[in-house]
Write a structure and sequence with these properties.
Layout lengths: L12 E5 L3 H13 L4 E5 L2 H10 L4 E4 L3 H15 L10 E5 L4 H10 L3 E4 L4 H13 L4 E3 L4 E3 L34 H8 L7
Parallel strand pairs: 1-2, 1-3, 3-4, 4-5
Antiparallel strand pairs: 6-7
């Protein structure tokens, strides 16, 4: 990636929340390698809450399984607090087992991005840069507060009113090619034997 496209983390304040001293120190060292000068290390949710009362942060890196999954409640409470700009600070979650269920749970608490462990510095930097450039708006549906979980917005389905106040109907053009026959569709769905 060209240097002008890099995110400057030298003035960023990062809150790192992990389950062990070794893990939080490793995470802090990776961030320092990205030229982040201010990395606050926390091993408990109480420490993280105190740190957030004392300073503004620009990024939160958290392992949600801290204190028997209290990290999920921490993220959810932060998002629904309404305390700007803190409630919308980017949150990257680290999961030891990034199963689809774990990823969905992280996403549903309001996390911006989920990264599977073990963490590589290159992958973390890519995720931080992605989150910094993310243009998704925040939504509050009552049950969920956080970045819009849809990555693409192509308007509501044809003929339907949008679910958001700002949704616009997108006109569809005429078909450019004839529709597929049912036999063609069935051929796509039918398992094919592969010969080696």
């Amino acid at each position: 990636m060209p240097d002008e496209a890099r995110i400057n983390l030298s003035k960023a304040s990062i809150l790192a929340i992990e389950t062990s001293q070794h893990a939080v120190d490793t995470l802090a060292q990776i961030c320092k390698g990205f030229e982040a000068r201010e990395v606050h290390r926390c091993l408990t949710i109480a420490e993280a809450e105190t740190a957030l009362r004392l300073r503004q942060v620009n990024l939160i890196l958290i392992n949600p399984s801290i204190e028997a999954d209290a990290g999920f409640d921490f993220i959810r409470a932060l998002r629904s607090s309404g305390a700007e700009p803190l409630c919308s600070v980017p949150i990257i979650v680290f999961c030891g087992h990034a199963t689809p269920g774990d990823v969905a749970r992280c996403r549903n608490t309001g996390a911006n991005f989920v990264v599977a462990k073990p963490i590589s510095s290159g992958a973390l930097l890519q995720r931080i840069e992605w989150v910094a450039r993310d243009q998704r708006q925040f939504v509050d549906t009552g049950d969920y507060v956080g970045p819009d979980r849809r990555f693409k917005f192509e308007g509501p389905p044809p003929g339907m009113a949008g679910r958001r106040e700002g949704d616009k109907l997108v006109p569809l053009g005429d078909a450019q090619e004839p529709n597929l026959s049912q036999n063609d569709i069935d051929a796509f769905l039918k398992p094919q034997k592969v010969m080696h």
